Amino acid sequence: MEQWFLATLLVFIFMPLIRCSSLDQASLLRSFLANKDYKLNDEWAVSYVDLRTEADDLGSMESDLIKDNLPGQPSEIGFKHYAGYVTVDDFKGRNLFYYFVESALLDPVSKPVVLWLNGGPGCSSLGIGAFVEHGPFGVQSDGSTLYLRRHSWNRVANILYVESPAGVGFSYSKTTSDYNTTGDLRTAQDSYVFLINWFKRFSQFKNNDFYIAGESYAGFYIPELADLIIHNNLHAHSSSKIKLKGVMVGNGMMDLKIDRRGLYLYLWSHALISVGTYKGLAKNCLDFKEKCYVYEDLLAKEIGNINMYNLYSEDCSSIHKHGAIDPCEKNYVNSYLNLPGVQTALHANRTQLPYPWSFCSFGTNSSWRDHPSSMLPFYRRLIAAGVRILVYRYCHFLMMYNLFVTRN
């Protein structure tokens, strides 16, 4: 699987292509979709505010360099990596944490920069994207030793992992009310300001081709941020323009109704839910009727304790574990990122947050304020702007299976 993703990234970045084809991330997304307290704001798609870049004195490229090895890191890794904070709102004190890995092959300045975003909403790109999925290091079962990942994405590009929005992972705000007022609009705005300030800090990369990639709820984050970049590039000074070339969305949300219909049909066709539950979901949940909660509960009971990321893989609770992928890897990563020595080496948790690092912020998720109901208008604008688009699905991923993508 890692080889396939690496090959896909290589082809997408270096060859012209337009194609359709976590770890509490899945349960968090399911609970989010069942919560009707957030606002479906379709006017968001065509409304913007003028964004100003914020003063950013939290660090420099030199101070963010991880000079000594991370605890348990192999020696002779062959690339530089950086970590630290970037200010996105100086007045309220919102600061986003990032981890940046230079390309391991040839000259990094000649390679594209890829921003990776995980979903949730409220899940960590550092923990899931970097340390579980495709970053340069994985964590051994002892929770303190790293190994080099053979098929890390930084073999073909410079990869930037950002924990967004504030309240996720090590990212924070000095204004605690920010944690209860987060939504798609502010997340996109903060991500844009982050990029402007980050490229100032890493100015040698500002003229590189830039791509945005991610999964799950990042299926909303990515088109929104890309659309905002295109809009602001029209008005920005040349020194602040971002050279966006393409977006890449894996197992991502696209349209609330289409996504739900595809998921329910997939679960029923794989004998994971009964005919009655499928019909009840299709009748009550596509338009968020009140009775939807009853059938969502039935769905959860009928599918039971299975691995939502791979239908045919074991869960971490399984006594016997087989295969190349360890379903308990998230536990090892959680232990590692909570080690004080690791946080110091990553220049993280400098404010001593009153809670441990975790893969996902359920508080951020439950207080989400807004998002559009569909990304299709965003995709139309991206296509019109000449942005290259890759949408891919892993057919055994249960949380967000969209038959619209695979059959159209």
UniProtKB/TrEMBL annotation:
<dbReference type="InterPro" id="IPR001563">
    <property type="entry name" value="Peptidase_S10"/>
</dbReference>
<keyword id="KW-0325">Glycoprotein</keyword>
<dbReference type="GO" id="GO:0005773">
    <property type="term" value="C:vacuole"/>
</dbReference>
<dbReference type="InterPro" id="IPR029058">
    <property type="entry name" value="AB_hydrolase_fold"/>
</dbReference>
<protein>
    <recommendedName>
        <fullName>Carboxypeptidase</fullName>
        <ecNumber>3.4.16.-</ecNumber>
    </recommendedName>
</protein>
<dbReference type="GO" id="GO:0005576">
    <property type="term" value="C:extracellular region"/>
</dbReference>
<keyword id="KW-0378">Hydrolase</keyword>
<comment type="similarity">
    <text>Belongs to the peptidase S10 family.</text>
</comment>
<dbReference type="InterPro" id="IPR018202">
    <property type="entry name" value="Ser_caboxypep_ser_AS"/>
</dbReference>
<dbReference type="Pfam" id="PF00450">
    <property type="entry name" value="Peptidase_S10"/>
</dbReference>
<keyword id="KW-0645">Protease</keyword>
<keyword id="KW-1015">Disulfide bond</keyword>
<feature type="signal peptide">
    <location>
        <begin position="1"/>
        <end position="20"/>
    </location>
</feature>
<keyword id="KW-0964">Secreted</keyword>
<keyword id="KW-0732">Signal</keyword>
<keyword id="KW-0121">Carboxypeptidase</keyword>
<dbReference type="GO" id="GO:0004185">
    <property type="term" value="F:serine-type carboxypeptidase activity"/>
</dbReference>
<dbReference type="GO" id="GO:0006508">
    <property type="term" value="P:proteolysis"/>
</dbReference>
